[in-house]
Amino acid sequence: MNLTFEDVRSLVGGELVDADDSKVGKIEDIYLDNDTQEPAWALVHTGLLGRKQNYVPLTGASVSDGSLRVAYSESQIKKAPSIDPDVELSPKEEADLYQHYGVTAEPAVPPADDAEAAPPDAGSPTTGDAMTRSEEQLQVGVVRRPSTLVRLKKYIVTEQVQITVPVQREEVRVVREPVSGANVDQAMDGELSEEAHELTLMEEQVVVEKKVVPKERVRLDKRVTSDEEVVSDQVRKEQIDLEQQ
Predict the structure, then answer these.
(1) Can you tell me the mean pLDDT for 109-131?
(2) 149 assigned to some structural domain
(3) Within a domain: residue 210?
(4) Domain count, the chain
(5) Cα–Cα distance, 105 to 98 (Å, whole number)
(6) What is the pLDDT of residue 141?
(7) Contact 203, 171 (CB under 8 A)
(8) Residue 44 has pLDDT above 70, yes or no
(9) 215 in helix, strand or coil?
């Protein structure tokens, strides 16, 4: 049974394993067939540190335990032709990949214009007495793909900080007291003499130190927001007219 879009839409970013259930690498993207809109190719990271990308056909692939299991060996995948994943596969590149993996490409469906050029059905045995009118319908879905790499980075900046700090200091002043009866005994000892008095003045000085203080915890988190996108494309439908001869 072929994989459907719903089967693989959530596998981007998951693990791809080979036919022997050996891990090959992380799935970068899933590509749909332009005609059938069914999953046709997986782009997987391989090589040292996952720096190489290889295309793997999804023919015979299956989903198991959240991983995509393909029908090819890890060695075969890593030896696949190197193709730029940012450019749409050309018919030759697709043929080279199919040849490498030993896959027979499905025959192309004839263009609708050729079918319209065929003679009108005149009631062949396969259609009976009625015509079937068909029309194209848009099949719209979403694929989860990496869009933006966000990195939380911490670095150091320097800024000037100014703080006003009140300080005190002592100042000397001379106090003069007139000699009175209360202090006359201390004022005179009966002799002339020379003296020196000392007084130590004190003052406050600002001392600056630095210490590391934790302020907040910062981390990356994800939240899902919803939006709407308008998809527009052309679809064809058959019309049936009555002609009389």
Answers:
(1) 53
(2) no
(3) no
(4) 1
(5) 7
(6) 81
(7) no
(8) yes
(9) coil
